[in-house]
Every structure is written in C-alpha cells, then in structure tokens.
Specification:
alpha+beta; Nucleotidyltransferase, domain 5; Substrate Binding Domain Of DNAk, Chain A, domain 1; Rossmann fold; 3 domains; six-stranded mixed sheet; 16 helices; globular; binds adenosine monophosphate
Length: about 700
C-alpha cells in the first residue's frame, strides 16, 4: 500500500524519514547506504547524477554541476543552462526529490505517494509555493510544508513526552541560519518566534578560510588562486575540509598547488574563530531578536537544540553554552532531526499515531508502552504580510502590515480601503501584496499585483475590504470584498512590474492611487487594572489580551498608549505606534494594592485631549474601584470631550457599573476568564473598522 514520508530538502544535504514498524520516526538510507543525500545534480552523465556521485564530479572540478539552488526557489530570474536546457531551482529540486523518492521506495519495498517537506522558517510565499510545485512534480501529494526548526522541535518533543519545556532551536546549515523559540508540551508544539538570515551558513565560514588561503598564497607566490576558476573550486573544497578538521582538532594543514607553485599552510582553530567572529555575531544578533520577540531571555530557556551541519563547529557550542549556562541538548542528530520531525508531521496529517506504538521489548507483567497521541503544532511566520498603501498624510507609499510576523498560522485579517469610483469609470483596484517588516515598501518583498474588478459605483468612494491570509503552509491567499454589496470581487494576478522605483517616491495622485487609506487617525489608551486581585493568572491573561489588541491594530493609522492603575497610576507608554515599545510596557505592569481608576481616567483624558483623531479609552477592571462615583464622573468628562469609553469587566466586576463607565451599552462588556484575549481582539478590529460610535460584536 502506498505510504508517506517526511523530507528535509536541504540546501546542502537532504534526508528522508518514515514511520517505522514500531510507530517511530526513522531515517531511510539512500542507495549508497547513507542517511543524507547531497542536494547536488551533475548533468554530464545521462541520466544526470544526483547526490554523492554528483558531489564527486563537483570535487573533480566539473562545471555541469547544480548545487546550492534552494535559496533561489521561486525566483524566475534564476535559470541554469545544462545540455541546451534551462532549469529553474524548482526543476532542480524536483530532480533531487525524485531521487530521494526512488531510493526510499526501494529501501521500503513499497511505493510512496505522500510527503511532508520542510522549508526554512524564513522562506517567503514564492519559495513555499515553489517547494510544493517541486514536490508535486516529483510525484508526491504534498501533505504539508513545515518549517525546519518546527520539525526539529517535533522530533525533539517526541522523546520528551510528559515534560513541558521552552527551547531555542539554533539551526545553522550550509547556506542558511534560522533561530526559533518553541514551547514543547506533551500534546502541542507552540512556536513563539522565529528569526533568520537566508544568506548566512557554513559557506560563509568556508569563504573566510578561502580568502585567508588565497591571500597567503598570493603573498608568497604572486599568483592569486581565486583568479583561476578550477583553482577557485579547489580552494573552496580544501577550505571546507579544513573547517571540518578544525571541528575535531586545534590546527589544520592545507596544501595548495597552482602550476608549479605548491604551498602548505597551517590554520589554528583560534585564528579561524577570530576571522569568523563577525559571522558568529550575526547569529548572536538574530538569536537575541528571536528571544526578544518571544518576550524571553536566556535564563528563561530550558535548553537549546542544535540543528544543521555547521553547529558541529566548537564555536557554536561554546557560544550556546556560555549564553544559556548549560551545554546544548544532547541526543539530537543535527543532520537527521529535521527529516524525523517531517515524518512525525506526516503521521499527524494522515492521522496515524506516532511514538512507541508497538513496544520492542516487553518485560513479563509490564504494560505495553502507550502510543503517544498526535501532537498539535502551532507555527508562526517569520515575515509580516501587508499591502502597499498611501500613508495617512498622502505623502508616501507605505507597507501597511495586515498580519504581523510571529503570529500563529493559519491567520487571516483584513484592511478596508477607500476607492474612488469616478461614477463607474474606475472599477478596478490594484493591490500590491508585501512580505517584510520595513515601513518602506521598496525594502519589502512584493509578492504580487492582485487586480480586482467589477467594483460597483454605489458611491463616489466605496469601501473595499482586502482580506489576506496565511494558510497552514504559510502560503498566502488574497481576496477582496466590496463592503456595501458584500460581494467578493473577481481577481486576476498580474506580473509585478520590473521597475518599482515609483514606490520610493510620493504617490502620483493621492486620491486616485491604488490603495487610498481612509484618513483615519486613531488614538487608544489601554487602562489595565493592576490591583492585587489581578496578581498571577488574571494578569497573565490581561497581558496576553493587551498583546492581542496590539496584534490586531493597524499601526499605520493608530497610536496606542498604556496606563496601569492600582494604588497609584503609571503611564507605562505614551501614545505610540512602536509595537515593541508597547509590548515591553505590557510586561512592565506590576500588581499591588487597590484600584485608583479615577486618576487613571484623568491621566488618559489628559493624554487624549485636544486631538482631532478618533479617540478611545479601553479599560479593564476586575472589581469596583476605590472611588466608584468619581471614576464615573471622570468617564463622563472623557465622553463629553469626544472620547469613546470601552469598559471591560472580568472576575468580580459589576455589569451595571461597567455600563455607567462606558459610552453606551455595546461598549460595556463582561468577559469570563479565558475570554479576554478574544474580546480584546474584537475591540481592536471594531476600532480599526468602526465609525465614531463603536459597535462591538463580541
Ligand atoms: P546542512 O545544510 O545542515 O547539511 O549543513 C551543511 C553545512 O555543515 C556545510 O557548510 C558543511 O560544511 C557543514 N558541516 C558539516 N560537517 C561539519 C563539521 N564537522 N564541522 C563544521 N562544519 C560542518
């Protein structure tokens, strides 16, 4: 019966794993008996050689070689010519995947029709789509695309049933670096954050040695080996070998010969570490970034998993040990763990149990080991998703982020844009979809130009809701709905123009440009009850709810401030659109004493007064404040000055009292424990989309 596998389609090496007869993930060796297959194709033979044989041809200096093509997946510009044919990175990956399939099938004695394929967490939409295409072309039904570090966490988690841990996955391969923070629990893997660099890997370490050798050789002989293509290949091969040696020994000897000139050099590990210090610094910076995004620091981690061949370098191990205060987690095979995780995900997809389904040895009288239940995997995307929009002041194009990075996928969200119909003459809306963090669209990846048609001219300006989503594979979907008619607009995808320089300039005619933001200018103050009754889990939930509120805000038009109130009142953040600053402020809330809501409302009013924006106070409390009547007076004063008050109660809060604080009945809400996150999400959405008077559909 056809079966399924997990595949780590790597930049340098690939591996395949399946669910074995005991229900455990295990690697399927290739035809050479090796657990990993180099992701290399040689076109000088017919049919092309793949894997170890192709790598041997490369070492001999042949140039009909395709390697290192994975970073170019989905890039139409990347085409290699071999034997009069042109190959994209997708075509080359298909060849590697086909070889992996044939080898795995012969090892299993069974056909394989389905696969989970892993991708680096930083892979954007075109690269993910291209990976699915390559898998399909190789004859697989691609069950899922999952991030490599997530797969590593899954494989690690399966060994650890029963324990909940927060781990950092440091994945340094041949050409890429990914760092991910994950919560590994018995029933679920939750990815908290991820960061990376698709241009940082073992190859950069090789290049540093190659430059060192070439300089020494040129200084002694006057000949630069890097000028000679054959010699360049030789230097790179020797450099990589020297790097491997330095993982085991303190010095490496390297001999180079160009013409009659032959020289031998010695490289000490300490020298190697000094010359690659800046590369380690880059991984260090990204690791700190991932930790900060997860709201954690080194001491809060339970352990570090090393993944990828380059983590064999002692400098990586010492860095991790130094920062975390303990050695990296043992028992993880850096080359195989990703494929094993992919096999686990594949088993989850097809609904088969994974773990010790059939115990190998059963002692008399002992119970059979239970099968480990399928795990839930909550992943995130490392890129924010947005559209190119006109800034609220009409002066520039901005990257209007709709789904922030590091939110759980699948995810979807929408933005409403105003579109001038010109009485029916303009029924077409162009949406440029972006992936990236920069406010300047030119610095982001433009995924596509989505053109929506048949907009009905029901008014001079009509509202069009553009809905973006990430599916479970991290692949992007785009839709648009005309608000008034509720009709989904027909869409075509057009090629992205080569010249995007106009994105850096001012919008041509602001009022007619593709996405003209409704000139909303919103300012919100969150007021959080920090009295002692909120201590512990209630405050943790309130903090998550405030984070959710931020995740749902549109920061191109909105500023948020944060005040906490207990015995005293603290302005933790003045109004800002700086999300990181706000996230940090949320984590500075400290609980103590009683509930001075009066002063908190007065402070918020002071921060919001005299501003022509739409203004809101969103307050959360779990009981009566110290002076209930004067708090109501302050809320009334805020409302009189045009500020809308949303009052959310939880715990012992009184519904009637909340109504007296709120602007109207719809903005007084009582949320049970466990409902706050969702409630705050609804409120943020209602504020982003609503008019002057809010209606919250909780
Ligand atoms: P991967 O993409 O995970 O297969 O990793 C491949 C990278 O790991 C290449 O840059 C290899 O040179 C590097 N690598 C493999 N073994 C070692 C080793 N013993 N020491 C240092 N780097 C290694």
């Amino acid at each position: 019966m056809p079966t399924f596998v997990g595949i780590d389609l790597g930049t340098t090496n690939s591996a395949v794993a399946h669910r074995d007869a005991y229900g455990r993930p295990s690697i399927l060796a290739n035809r050479e008996g090796q657990n990993i297959t180099p992701s290399v194709v040689y076109f000088g033979t017919d049919p092309p050689a793949v894997g170890q044989e192709a790598r041997e041809w490369a070492r001999l200096g042949n140039d009909e070689i395709a390697s290192f093509f994975k970073p170019h997946m989905g890039n139409p510009q990347f085409q290699l010519q071999f034997q009069g044919r042109s190959y994209s990175a997708t075509d080359l990956s298909k060849i590697v995947l086909k070889r992996l399939k044939v080898d795995a099938e012969s090892r299993l004695g069974d056909s394989i029709d389905r696969a989970v394929i892993t991708v680096p967490a930083y892979f954007a939409d075109p690269q993910r789509t291209a990976t699915i295409e390559a898998g399909t072309a190789a004859g697989f039904r691609v069950l899922r695309i999952i991030n490599e570090p997530t797969a590593a966490a899954l494989a690690y988690g399966i060994q650890k049933s029963g324990i909940e841990e927060t781990v950092l996955i440091y994945d340094l391969g041949g050409g890429t670096f990914d760092v991910t923070v994950a919560r590994v629990a018995p029933d679920a893997i939750q990815i908290l954050s991820t960061a990376g660099d698709h241009d940082l890997g073992g190859k950069n370490w090789d290049d540093r040695i190659a430059t060192f050798l070439a300089e020494r050789f040129a200084a002694e002989t006057g000949l630069d080996p890097l000028d000679d293509p054959m010699m360049l290949n030789e230097v790179l091969v020797r450099s990589e070998q020297a790097k491997w040696t330095l993982s085991d020994r303190s010095t490496a000897r390297i001999t180079l010969q160009l013409g009659t000139e032959r020289r031998t050099f010695e490289l000490a590990r300490t020298e190697f570490e000094a010359m690659t210090f800046l590369l380690m610094e880059r991984t260090r910076r990204l690791t700190e970034e991932a930790l900060a995004e997860a709201g954690l620091n080194w001491p809060k981690l339970d352990g570090v998993l090393l993944v990828g061949g380059s983590t064999r370098m002692p400098m990586v191990r010492s860095y991790v040990s130094e920062m975390s205060g303990k050695p990296p987690r043992a028992g993880v095979n850096v080359d195989e763990v990703v494929a094993l995780g992919a096999a686990i995900q594949a088993a989850i997809e097809v609904g088969e149990p994974i773990g010790d389904a059939v115990p190998r040895f059963t002692l008399a009288g002992s119970k059979a080991a239970p099968s480990v239940p399928a795990r839930r995997v909550v992943d995130v995307m490392s890129h924010s998703l947005g559209t190119v929009a006109v800034s609220p002041d009409g002066c520039s194009y901005v990257n209007d982020i709709v789904i922030r990075r590091n939110v759980s996928i699948p995810a979807d969200d929408a933005r409403t844009y105003w579109h001038a119909t010109h009485g029916g003459a303009n029924d077409r809306l162009e949406v440029y979809v972006t992936q990236g963090e920069s406010r300047a669209p030119i610095d982001c990846h433009i995924l596509g130009k989505y053109v929506f048609r048949a907009i009905e001219p029901t008014a001079e300006e009509v509202a069009v809701e553009v809905r973006l989503s990430y599916d479970a594979n991290g692949v992007v979907q785009v839709r648009a709905i005309q608000r008034e008619t509720g009709r989904e607009l027909p869409m075509t995808v057009e090629p992205v123009p080569d010249d995007l320089s106009w994105l850096a300039g001012p919008p041509v005619v602001a009022s007619e440009s593709a996405l003209d933001r409704e000139p909303k200018r919103i300012r919100v103050f969150l007021l959080v009850d920090a009295s002692s009754s909120m201590a512990g889990p209630p405050m943790e939930e309130a903090q998550s709810a405030a984070s959710e509120f931020l995740a749902r805000c549109d920061f191109t038009t909105t500023e948020v401030g944060l005040i906490s109130f207990s015995t005293s009142v603290a302005l933790l953040a003045s109004a800002t659109s700086h999300v990181r600053r706000l996230e940090a402020a949320i984590h500075r809330i400290e609980t103590e004493g009683s509930t001075d809501l009066t002063d908190a409302l007065e402070m918020a009013r002071g921060q919001l007064v005299g501003d022509d924006r739409r203004r809101y106070i969103v307050l959360l409390t779990d009981g009566y404040p110290d002076a209930p009547e004067s708090a109501v007076e302050q809320a009334e004063a805020a409302r009189r000055s045009g500020i809308e008050v949303v009052a959310i109660g939880t715990g012992d809060a009184d519904r009637d009292y909340l109504r007296r604080l709120a602007s109207h009945d719809q903005t007084s809400i009582f949320a049970q424990r466990g409902e706050l996150v969702q409630t705050f999400g609804h409120i943020a959405r209602a504020i982003a989309e609503g008019g002057r008077s809010l209606r919250i559909l909780a």
